[in-house]
């Protein structure tokens, strides 16, 4: 029997006397539990006993706590490498990689880490959606683990089929429970994301439509606030959905919503600033500050007149109601400024 012990650490920037907020404590606990479920689902199938122990410095969690989850293997021999990477990408915490030297999967790592070594980190800590609470995403054969988080201007919803992994009471070890490991179907909608949470909540007052971009399926779906969309996943597969409020450009019929860099797991995390310039009589424009490099997409109900990156006109594609632009890595550490002119 192989035993591995992984420690999830939290960094506290205030004194040990500081009392935590309830949301911070619940966030720390939920972060640890989400990680535990993901780890058990994976290592249960490999016959490895994996013990996850969340630790909190000084015994207190605070609003400044950064949730950390265990290191991740990216190598090609790990069948659940992308599964784990997706959970880490939207965790809101730092990312640790524990590959053996020479066994990195750089294509996967590029979806997590930018060329300068930074990551697209969420603004909040990941939490399970309300309909997952008090359910068993490992052994009931029907529950899909859904976790949500917030970026600066978008939400993200992660869906994971963990059924069939985890702790066996009879053998007292993590092992595969194949009778539960099958396709799971679940419903999701924009309100699975707690938009009012965090230090910088996102206002969705008056929003009538959301743009949902599926990272794995590479498709766009428009949804009303309470409209359900169906997700079906094979065992130990996942989907990351970037959820973006749709805005009408003033004085036009154009509907617009930022999506982000679709080559990154946390697609919406690339959006650093968003400005609607509708005071110009001749035309409307939207300016988006983008951190990173790769394929930038936005939802637009109409084809833009032109697109610019740092004031230079660039080619773009318009397909399936999305504007597609290739964003180069900036010469400085600043974000690239992408402008859409209508």
UniProtKB/TrEMBL annotation:
InterPro entries: Glycosyl_hydrolases_36. Keywords: Carbohydrate metabolism. It comes from the Eukaryota. Pfam families: Raffinose_syn. This is Galactinol--sucrose galactosyltransferase. The lineage of its organism: Eukaryota, Viridiplantae, Streptophyta, Embryophyta, Tracheophyta.
